[in-house]
Amino acid sequence: MQNRKPVVGITQGDGNGIGYEVIIKALADARVLDQFTPVVYGSSKIFGFYKKTIHNLEHIDTNVILSAKDAHNKRVNIVNCLQDNAYVEPGQPNPEAGKYAIKSLETAVQELKEGYIDVLVTGPINKKVMSTQGFGFTGHTEFLEDAFGVKDVTMFMVSDNLKIGVVTGHIPLKEVPGSITQEKILSKLRLMDASLKRDFGVDQPKIAVLSLNPHSGDGGLLGDEEQTIIAPAVQAAQAEGINAFGPYSPDGFFGLGNYSRFDATLAMYHDQGLAPFKAIAFEEGVNFTAGLPVVRTSPDHGTAYEMAGRDEANPRSMMSAIYTAIDIFRNRQAYDELLEGKMKERVLEDSKPNKPGRPQIA
Fold this sequence. Notes:
Elements: E1 7-11, H1 19-26, E2 37-42, H2 44-52, E3 62-65, E4 76-80, H3 95-113, E5 119-122, H4 127-131, H5 140-147, E6 154-158, E7 163-166, H6 176-179, H7 182-198, E8 206-210, H8 225-239, E9 243-248, H9 250-255, E10 264-267, H10 270-281, E11 286-290, E12 295-299, H11 316-350
Parallel strand pairs: 1-2, 1-5, 2-4, 3-4, 5-12, 7-10, 8-9, 8-10
Antiparallel strand pairs: 6-7, 6-11, 11-12
Helix pairs in contact: 7-8
């Protein structure tokens, strides 16, 4: 089962940004087709337009289809889910691009639910533009949480050397303090602990928890959330067997490289976690949604309109997103098979008639 070549669904994101360019560059090497089957959700016409803007591009064999169920395993497949008259204006955010981004995402998620693709990699979007087209979510994370009906997920920024989750995601900074609760911190720690074990193969993960206020509140002088909310949440996690530690003041934590002593770090809000992550691991960084029953990743960058259509975009983060999704998919298979094997062994052991300590039936 683990040797089967996975089918990777990739959404175009905002067609006026660098999404198509990084997708095409990431799939340009024909050797990738030996490792996975790519399915791009968007427009073959727009794909062709951006392909012409990239210099020294190797030949790419494409296959235009209506559904991933018809994907060719030796070609770059394109699901034409946009209107025939779909067009792009590189570098220009506009409502049409938002509409196309929504259609690409909704089509891919539906096919993910139907099992036609194994993992989902999402291209960068413009949330504000999409909101003008009825997209009622502040990002991919929130949309997928709703689409798969789960109680909680977390944005988990991952690279080989650094993994950071966040308690609060895409909300205004002024709403952060009131949104942080002991239960919410504990929920994120549970998600991260489970993900590190199942998705990343960490046996006994250690998770650092950051403070909210400068200098961890200075004993209450600069705020008491560390004493009243964060520290009790860490203690509650430890009582559940989660190796959580903190809270730590973020400046010294990252400045002194203390993050390297832990398998992951939980930040209180978006920029507290993503700013150091992008400073340390921008080119290879990946945004992973922990807590979903499916695997979803994305590059850790945005639409970068200023680069669109100029052949300037670096595909490294898109490539990392694709291969991280595949690694997680296979890690889950291995973890679940191991767990299933242990359960079968336990059932067989319990069914033995003369097991020590078991009373015999006369």
